[in-house]
Design brief:
heterotrimer, B: 556 residues, mainly alpha, Cytochrome C Oxidase, Chain A, 17 helices, globular, C: 278 residues, alpha/beta, Immunoglobulin-like, 11 strands, binds heme-A, binds dinuclear copper ion, binds copper (II) ion
């Protein structure tokens, strides 16, 4: 049977702007799925290399663990502080929110610095061997994500400097999006740490 | 009531009259404008890709490499493959029709992220021009659209790098589009509209977009690694430096096999829209169609190694990928039999849209059957990388998807312009295309079986005659484009006025004026619970009453 | 019924393939005939249905209303899910069997650990030759053709002829380790198993002899073995089937399958080791 109903007038606000916020987070999440697949590709490549192209014994180098463990801690803590910032924003406490954001950004930058230190102290360079290349590709790509994330945190930090700014308790989207992204980047790091350093 | 979308960058009168033509060249956020931008842009690239195909067929008309130098031949065939896939099929079946139709189908006034949508489109022209211009600046990439290392590492770097860059841009465009489609279908549905009431094309686009989001990033990552190998001299895929070339193939096909369903699932969806309207019957087996789309999505992600049967993959892997690949025939078969059942007992108008759709069924079944044959390892070992494969995929991408694009243009042209296309010319177009196509590609099966490899500029003279037949077929296809172009252009100005709903269709895009107003419906969006509710005896419902305007103005 | 019989007839009687010249080619052709028959039946059946529907159910000028409002039919759906499923299952198992008979299912990297595996004499011989010459490369990847059908057949008694194939832009080189000489053309004795050990110097190539129905990529950094038994004397083309650069199309050679005596004569004429001995 053909039924072509008109909607009842009560349901007219179907495309109201306030709903848009939800959709934007949905989009961010979908994008992160795509991003995760990029990493998945890298991981798959790394694991395959690992399995199929074992290195000559003399080229094997045990990675030092202290720095990466420090890095892991830095990132995990930064996830928590970001979460705090979000909570504060929800309470419309912009000042506290900004403080927590700044802590997060600093932690992120500290991560980058310590990553740099590791790069410079490693005995192998980008093109030394397959393993070295993959190591740098994976950590480098992740580092790029952290860099972008830190930048975005600073932008959000800037944007919520006044209670009437762009990021407020009423418009949390930028903060939430960056937060989700930041947790995602942390999650990737944990996987990366497990695979790259511990495996 | 007025519309409550966020303010849009333009305020045109709700019609597509010539006053607004400039917006087709601007950063418009209207999904219909973007859809047409995709379509026209894609078609221009199709002409370029077709001209490249013409160059290929001219070269192959004689067994010697006489028409162009050998390295130019490789550039031409790389460009042909890349342009056709990334700049024609993918943007058109996804971007063009997806953007135009999906918001209508879900009862929305635009896509979920209009701005992202415009960004996604505007990545394409620069990427395409970059790709084409590489030919003139430095010489294009020469390693085929698959860009297998180590060849892609050793051929001139500049062309290959431009190729990578432009494919990355196109991949990005595709991912943005995919995110948009998923959000639009899942989130922007009009209240009251259930998922299982959506027109089939929505499902097809949902499945396609899932594939896009899951697989395209892997290609991007792979190409980034490849570009490191080229510019930074790392050794991921360089055996000289300890790398592994087969890993590239795995990663590449992890994207590029799903890519073939990215090219064909939307086409399946479009056919599912076109056939019921012109057969005046409900789409047969709606639910099984939905399940088979999802089955194809899942299976499509786990069959990639069937492109690598001769690459020294372990036997268990070959066995697994043979079985998985062959099983895709089952859900695909369900769809085909459902279409046959839709035709059965209908009142079929034999117009150009239906002819092209049925041409699609015929061609695709042949291409699918050769596909299932190719999935059998022992068979593939003989014909891999030969013209048999070339024939297989042209039967699918051209005989399948391109035929559907033409069918869709015939079907939706009245919607977009408000005018009908000329029927007799349309049929002539179909006839020429169908004959030319089969003449061009059917003989290539034989060529492949008998020893002609693909991607060669010179070949054993014993194959000359068959190749000439094929080239004649290509010429016929080129000629067949002319009546089509003439038809499309001329009808835009003096085609017969179509009225709002010339096909008396029930899907939502027809329940508004043709061409539609800027925000799709002047009033409330109609709730279409049975998009395929045809087949009502003539005395029970007056079909004329369902032509859009009456419906949305009268409130029924 | 007519359709099925017709399809079978076409599949069995129309030959689109070149002559078969190796032990696995007839096996392959068997598979091809089955696939061709099934394909023809399906294709002709479906095209028939389409054309029939278009003719029978086309809208005649005086007809107005709609077609029948049939929306689905569960038994039908089950039927046409089951039929392709059974067909592909059959085809899959059958081609698996064929593949096994052609010798594709033997584990690949037995160059690594041949201790625990069963090898035919022929296989073993080839393997040892390799292990000596290439202890460093370690892993050897196998192509098709080193499996049951060929190695357990009658020819088995004869040791496989080991040949080292080097592919490079844009030529194949064939080295006969038993005679320590290099040839630009592949000569093999009919009826005797041959074991090619293939390696590429620069980019990927592929070794293809259409008359043998055999193809194997030759991948740099990944030595590969390809075993086969030529049967029909004659000269057949060797084609490079993987894009390898501008002259990819010109990268052709030929394989000469000779009666064992002729082959032996050719071999002796080229043999460097013998010359040195004498
Ligand atoms: C839109 C694009 C598209 C689509 C949809 C397909 C669909 C399929 N393809 Fe194809 N394919 C390509 C595009 C496509 N392909 C391209 C571009 C290449 C070459 C890439 C390159 O190397 O450059 C390729 C190469 C390719 C290969 C590798 C060949 C080689 O290089 O050696 C294989 C092997 O398995 C294959 C198999 C299949 C199969 C099994 C399907 C199946 O999905 C088909 C399923 C459909 C049917 C079977 C028909 C309908 C079903 C019925 C009527 C039911 C009854 C049928 C049976 C029981 C059999 N394809
Ligand atoms: C995806 C879609 C697609 C489409 C639609 C086509 C369409 C065509 N293809 Fe293509 N083809 C591929 C995808 C596609 N191809 C891919 C992926 C490859 C593999 C590349 C690789 O190996 O890397 C390939 C490879 C390929 C080969 C093998 C080359 C080789 O291996 O050496 C051949 C040879 O015949 C060929 C021919 C054709 C022909 C004759 C058409 C025809 O259908 C084209 C018809 C259209 C026209 C003829 C256009 C008409 C318009 C004009 C002529 C106007 C003139 C133009 C201007 C004024 C600007 N194609
Ligand atoms: Cu060597 Cu192609
Ligand atoms: Cu595939």
């Amino acid at each position: 049977m053909t039924t072509l109903n008109q909607a009842d007038p009560s349901a007219t606000n179907d495309v109201a702007p306030h709903e848009h916020g939800d959709h934007r987070m949905f989009g961010v999440a979908t994008f992160l799925v795509a991003d995760a697949m990029t990493f998945a590709g890298f991981f798959a490549a790394y694991l395959t290399f690992h399995a199929v192209n074992p290195l000559q014994p003399d080229a094997v180098y045990e990675l030092e663990l202290p720095l990466p463990i420090l890095n892991t801690v830095l990132l995990l803590v930064s996830s928590a502080t970001f979460h705090k910032a979000g909570q504060k924003l929800r309470l419309a406490d912009n000042r506290a929110c900004r403080q927590w954001l700044m802590v997060t950004a600093v932690l992120g930058l500290a991560f980058l610095v310590s990553q740099m230190v590791e790069y410079f102290t490693l005995p192998f360079g980008l093109t030394d061997n397959l393993y070295a290349s993959t190591f740098y590709a994976l950590t480098g790509f992740h580092g790029l994500h952290v860099t972008l994330g830190a930048l975005m945190i600073l932008i959000v930090w800037w944007q919520c400097r006044t209670p009437s700014g762009r990021v407020t308790a009423h418009n949390q989207f930028p903060l939430e999006a960056v937060e989700l992204y930041w947790h995602f980047v942390d999650g990737i790091w944990v996987v990366l740490f497990l695979i790259l350093y511990l495996l | 009531m007025t519309v409550s979308l966020p303010p849009q960058s333009e305020q045109h009168t709700p019609s597509l009259q010539p006053t607004g033509w400039l917006r087709y060249f601007s950063f418009s956020v209207d999904h219909k404008v973007i859809g047409l931008q995709y379509l026209v842009c894609g078609f221009l690239f199709y002409l370029i890709g077709g001209a490249l195909a013409g160059a290929i067929r001219t070269e192959l008309a004689s067994p010697m490499s006489d028409f162009m130098p050998r390295d130019v031949y490789n550039q031409v065939l790389t460009l042909h493959g890349t342009v056709m896939i990334f700049l024609w099929i993918v943007p058109v079946v996804n971007g063009a029709f997806g953007n135009y139709l999906i918001p209508f189908y879900v009862g929305a006034r635009d896509m979920a992220y209009p701005r992202l949508n415009a960004v996604a489109f505007w990545l394409i022209p620069p990427a395409g021009l970059l790709l084409i211009s590489s030919y003139f600046i430095t010489g294009a990439a020469q390693s085929g659209w698959t860009a297998y290392p180590p060849l892609s590492i050793t051929t001139p770097a500049s062309g290959q790098m431009i190729w990578i860059l432009s494919v990355l841009l196109l991949g990005g465009s595709s991912i943005f589009g995919g995110i948009n489609f998923i959000a639009t279908v899942l989130k922007l549905r009009r209240p009251g509209l259930k998922l299982m009431q959506l027109p089939m094309y929505c499902w097809a686009m949902l499945g396609t977009s899932i594939l896009v989001v899951l697989s395209t990033p892997v290609l991007a990552g792979t190409l980034i690694l490849l570009s490191f190998d080229i510019v930074a001299h790392t050794g991921f895929f360089n055996p000289g430096l300890g790398g592994n070339v087969v890993v590239y193939q795995h990663l590449f096909w992890f994207y590029s096999h799903p890519a073939v369903y990215i090219m064909v699932l939307p086409a399946f969806g479009l056919v599912s829209e076109i056939l019921p309207v012109h057969c005046r019957k409900p789409l047969f087996g709606y639910a099984t169609m939905v399940y088979s789309i999802m089955a194809i999505v899942v299976l499509g992600l786990v069959v990639w190694a069937h492109h690598m049967f001769t690459s020294g993959t372990p036997p268990w892997m070959r066995l697994f990928f043979t079985i998985a690949t062959a099983f895709i025939a089952v859900p695909t078969g369900i769809k085909f039999f459902n279409w046959l059942a839709t035709l059965w007992g209908g009142r079929i108008s034999l117009n150009s849209a239906v002819l092209f759709s049925c041409g699609f069924i015929v061609n695709f079944v042949l291409g699918g059957i050769t596909g299932v044959a190719l999935a059998q390892v022992p068979f593939d070992v003989h014909v891999h990388d030969t013209y048999f494969v070339v024939a297989h995929f042209h039967y699918i991408v051209y005989g399948g998807t391109v035929f559907v694009i033409f069918a869709s243009i015939y079907h939706w042209y009245p919607k977009v312009t408000g005018r009908m296309l000329n029927e007799p010319i349309g049929r002539l177009h179909f006839l020429l295309t169908f004959i030319g196509f089969n003449l061009c590609f059917a003989p290539q099966h034989w060529l492949g079986l008998n020893g002609m490899p693909r991607r060669v500029a010179e070949y054993d003279p014993q194959f000359a005659f068959i190749n000439q037949i094929s080239s004649v077929g290509a010429l016929l296809m080129a000629i067949s484009t002319l009546p089509f172009l003439w038809n499309v252009v001329a009808s835009a100005f003096n085609g017969e006025i179509a009225g709002d709903n010339p096909w008396k269709a029930l899907t939502p895009e027809w329940l508004t004026s043709s061409p539609p107003p800027v925000e799709n419906w002047v009033g409330e969006a109609p709730l279409v619970e049975e998009p395929y509710g045809y087949g009502v005896p003539i005395d029970q419902i007056d079909l004329k009453a369902t032509s859009g305007r009456d419906l949305w103005s009268s409130g029924k | 019924m007519i359709l099925v019989l017709g399809g079978l007839w076409i599949g069995q009687n129309i030959n689109l393939l070149p002559v078969d010249a190796s032990a696995n080619a007839p096996v392959y052709d068997e598979l091809f005939r089955v696939l061709f028959s099934i394909g023809t039946i399906l294709f002709v059946g479906i095209v028939g249905l389409v054309v029939f529907s278009l003719v029978r159910f086309r809208r005649k000028p005086d007809q107005l209303g709609d077609g029948l409002a049939i929306e689905g039919n569960l038994p039908l759906e089950v039927f046409w899910t089951a039929v392709p499923a059974i067909v592909v299952l059959f085809v899959g198992l059958y081609s698996y069997d064929i593949y096994d008979r052609m010798g594709g299912m033997t584990p690949l990297n037995h160059g690594m650990d041949h201790g625990g595996m069963q090898h035919s004499a022929a296989d073993h011989k080839a393997m040892e030759g390799m292990d000596e010459s290439d202890a460093m490369a370690g892993r050897v990847w196998g192509g098709i053709g080193n499996g049951s059908a060929i190695s357990t057949s009658a020819e088995n008694a004869v040791a496989a002829v080991p040949i080292e194939v080097t592919a490079m832009q844009f030529a194949f080189l064939f080295r006969y380790p038993q005679g320590d000489f290099i040839s630009g053309e592949l000569h093999v004795p009919a009826g005797q198993p041959v074991s090619l050990r293939m390696e590429a110097k620069d980019v990927i190539h592929a070794f293809w002899v259409p008359e043998f129905r055999l193809k194997q990529d030759v991948i740099p950094g990944q030595p590969t073995v390809l075993n086969f038994t030529p049967t029909r004397p004659g000269t057949y083309p060797i084609v490079c089937a993987e894009l390898c650069g501008p002259y990819h199309g010109g990268m052709r050679s030929s394989v000469v399958v000779e009666e064992p005596e002729t082959y032996q004569a050719w071999f002796n004429a080229n043999n460097k080791l013998n010359v040195a001995d004498a």
